[in-house]
Automatic annotation (TrEMBL):
This is Xaa-Pro aminopeptidase. Residues 39-186 form the Aminopeptidase P N-terminal domain. InterPro entries: Aminopep_P_N (IPR007865), Creatin/AminoP/Spt16_N (IPR029149), Creatinase/aminopeptidase-like (IPR036005), Pept_M24 (IPR000994), Peptidase_M24B_aminopep-P_CS (IPR001131), X-Pro_dipept-like (IPR052433). PANTHER family: XAA-PRO AMINOPEPTIDASE 3 (PTHR43226:SF4). It catalyses: Release of any N-terminal amino acid, including proline, that is linked to proline, even from a dipeptide or tripeptide. Gene3D superfamilies: Creatinase/methionine aminopeptidase superfamily (3.90.230.10), Creatinase/prolidase N-terminal domain (3.40.350.10). Its cofactor is Mn(2+).
Length: 502
């Protein structure tokens, strides 16, 4: 309910005469009366809300979508709803800014879900033709209250009635809000509590809010079958994006600033196949691959380089893939590139082998990390006299982490770093369960100015990242269709560049 305020230009004028207003409101064909079909996700979203309802009985839960953020003057950044809102409503990329989902406790137990939003304005309203931010003439029509109700199977109301619903018996009913989703809704909830003279301290109230946000973050850790289907679609689209990059590599070399060219090729497919990229694409050629999150993408792509591309398509439901491939620009790995690449691949295989129910999340990193440490030890890169077990000792060692400073895995879903609010015992020390989706992405990074790396290694960075589903008896690599071994990657580039397709 609280998009940023825009700066309006005073030098624009809109016709305001009575004649004009009557004229522009008239002469339009009537709107379709056909009900919007129920969305496939509606039943899944209902189940998710039922889980939430059981966890917070008798409480009013406020889950805002968030509002528009100003980019400059009267233009906004593209809108993305808060993930908790998208998850519980079932609305993805087409959520309306300033919406709020309220789980309102019912006297007999359970909750009624009510979606507050700004519905389509009538044609005789000023908004229809004069509101450049929300008006139908400017940004297209929005759904009506009836549209949303039949699409999602929940109650919907105009956002203007939200403050009154919030204030209703606020003294007697505990209210929690997902604070980071919308600062102004959080502020309104604070005011309502203050007026109702709630006995809990402000610190206690905010702690209760945080508990709700953490629960919502964590309840997405096991994906339902619909979510797994969406992840498969995101991964297939990402695969297509990579297929589009490969034939573009020679042009990226020729044009200069080739990393941007590669970013653009992927972005084209991300927008066409899905909602967009799930995070800023990392297109890092040569030494740039040694910057873990190189998203400036301002560099050249040169023959002889490896180019590390870490990118993911987010589909309209907002599920995103997160995949990295490190590709030889000319189609062939050099001997030293191959040596480093195969060490990373071996680490990734070890990490993947640890993905099975009953193992802990941190076992994945432990397995991959051991291979990385072993290789660096074999190559003589660890300080003199340091043994493998010493460097693997987390309290005293970890010298090998100089060449892989990041972790091996994270949960993946609607947020690229999914379930981020979970505490260590629930995330790192948590047991793997069927339905979890996570990345396995070790790497090795030898910066051009790393005097402790062998000279021939300097300027080479490799990461390999796949998206893995935990199954009843192990795992399924959801991105296994994308080649990974040295031979398969070389054959892939040959095949795609020769125009033979996938
Ligand atoms: Mn990742």
């Amino acid at each position: 309910m609280t998009s940023d305020k825009q700066v309006k230009a005073s030098h624009r004028s809109t016709p305001t005469s009575g004649e004009f207003r009557a004229f522009i409101a008239s002469g339009w064909a009537s709107r379709s009366a056909a009900p919007v079909p129920r969305a496939e996700v509606a039943d899944y979203a209902a189940r998710r809300r039922a889980v939430l309802s059981r966890r917070f009985p008798g409480e009013r839960l406020v889950i805002p979508a968030g509002g528009l953020k100003v980019r400059s003057n009267d233009t906004d950044y593209p809108f993305r709803p808060h993930t908790a809102f998208a998850y519980l409503s079932g609305l993805g990329a087409h959520s309306e800014p300033d919406s709020v989902l309220v789980m309102d406790p019912k006297p007999g137990g359970g909750h009624e879900a009510v979606l507050f939003f700004r519905p389509l304005a009538p044609r005789d309203s000023e908004e229809f033709f004069a509101d450049a931010r929300f008006g139908e003439f400017w940004v297209g029509p929005r759904p009506t209250v009836q549209d949303v109700e039949s699409q999602l199977g929940i109650s919907a109301r105009h956002i203007d009635s939200f403050p009154d619903v919030l204030a209703k018996d606020a003294g007697a009913t505990q209210v929690r809000v997902v604070r980071p989703a919308d600062g102004q809704v959080a502020h309104l909830v604070d005011q309502t509590r203050a007026q109702a003279e709630v006995s809990a301290s402000v610190a206690q109230q905010h702690e209760a809010d945080e508990e709700l946000a953490r629960y919502l973050s964590g309840m997405r850790i096991v994906k339902d079958e619909w979510e797994i289907g969406e992840m498969r679609r995101a991964i297939a689209a990402t695969h297509q994006g990579f297929e589009a990059i490969i034939p573009g590599l020679p042009e990226a070399v020729r044009k200069g600033r080739g990393e941007r060219w590669v970013e653009g090729l992927f972005g084209l497919y991300a927008r066409h196949e899905g909602n967009g990229v799930g995070y800023e694409s990392i297109c890092a050629s040569g030494d740039h691959a040694n910057t873990i999150h190189w998203t400036r993408n301002t560099g050249q792509v040169r023959e002889g380089d490896l180019i590390l591309v870490d990118a993911g398509v987010e589909v309209d439901s907002l599920y995103t893939a997160d995949i990295t491939r490190t590709l030889p620009v000319t189609g062939r790995f050099t001997e030293v590139q191959r040596k480093i690449y195969e060490a990373v691949l071996e680490a990734q295989e070890a990490g993947m082998a640890a993905v099975k129910p009953g193992n802990k999340f941190s076992d994945i990193h432990a397995a991959a990390n051991r291979v990385i440490a072993q290789r660096l030890h074999d190559w003589g890169l660890l300080p003199d006299g340091v043994t493998l077990e010493q460097t693997l000792d987390p309290e005293h060692g970890a010298w090998h982490r100089r060449w892989m400073v990041h972790g091996t895995s994270h949960h993946l879903g609607m947020d690229v770093h999914d379930c981020q609010l979970l505490l260590r015992q629930e995330y790192m020390d948590g047991e793997l369960r069927p339905g979890m989706i996570l990345t396995v992405e070790p790497g090795l990074y030898f910066k051009a100015d790393d005097l402790l790396a062998p000279e021939e290694f300097r300027g080479i960075g490799v990461r390999i990242e796949d998206n893995v589903l935990v199954t009843e008896d192990g795992h399924e690599n959801l991105s296994s269709a994308m080649p990974r071994t040295v031979d398969d990657v070389e054959a892939w580039i040959d095949r795609v560049q020769s125009g033979a397709g996938a």
